[in-house]
Amino acid sequence: MAGSTGGDGQAAPTIYDVARAAGVAASTVSRAFARPARVNAETAGRIRRIAEEMGYRTNPLARALLNERSSMIALAISDITNPYCFEIIRGAQAAAMEVGYTMLLADGQESDRLERETLDRAARTVEGIVLASTRMSDTSIRMMAKLRPLIVLNRAVAGVPSVVTDYRHGMREAVEHLHGLGHSHITYLAGPEAAWSDGIRWQALREAGVEWGLRLHRLGPYPPTMLGGVAAADDFWRRSTSAVIAYNDLVALGLLRGLSAAGVRVPQDVSVVGCDNIFGTDLVTPGLTTLAAPLRFLGRTAVQSLLALISGAQPPVDKPVSIPTRLVVRASTDERRPARLAPPAIPVRPPISTPAGTPAT
Pro residues compositional bias: what residue ranges (predicted)? Predict the structure, then answer.
């Protein structure tokens, strides 16, 4: 069967040309590109190598129209500028590429509407979707799951399979660390009100506080950004405690900046703990003690779970896959010391609003 004519006047190789050269059926060549998991790995590799040498190229969009198999998945994130997403993206893409899938990246820009509209369009082409730190409502997520196989990352939604970080155990570990340093009064800087992970972290803090007889104070909500942390600095010092745990590392880093500008010493005056162990937490002074989430492994696990779902597996929807955390102790935490007689003056800052109804990770 003749192929189309290329730019040099020669016919482009067809799937049948590749099949003859590889000594396999055309259907096997098709599966090697469209459903590589169903072809022997050695055979699939040989077919791809021969196809590359011959200059054969597939058309994933045309293939999707013919058989709804595009070998493409989508990863939706809330904010591409958030360092939390970097390693998740890398882990997810690596897992997809290993089995011949292409990953589309959808940036919701902190908007549930934009995220929903983008995924509605992507769902026409991709075989499945991973939602990482989605801003969509549970109802919207369940509706999306009816269109395409779907995995939710770091959020539990009834009836939808998910992969979550075990922040419940991690927060207990952070509290135990601070308690061991002599801190008995701890402030929690909360993230967005509708954030599933924020609720889990605060609940774990309260349970640990009861167990060890600690006093807990909650401030916020704050945007999950460095500006949110700067905004929290004067709120915190007006009702200061000897230790603070922030919703995420960005808030913690912003807090460090705000307190430093006001002359508050970390960890001499206050110990600070963040969450996620994003890039840069070991580069600031003092280095930030934080709960390390295996972000690259999270992305990889989510995509592997999605590909299994696409292949017909039935993952549990009543209990999320839980990934453990570990506490990374750096210089921002130390033993409790006597409090200052008076708090330093905190510069006046403009108010920073928290987007309403936006779940965050």
Answer: 344-353
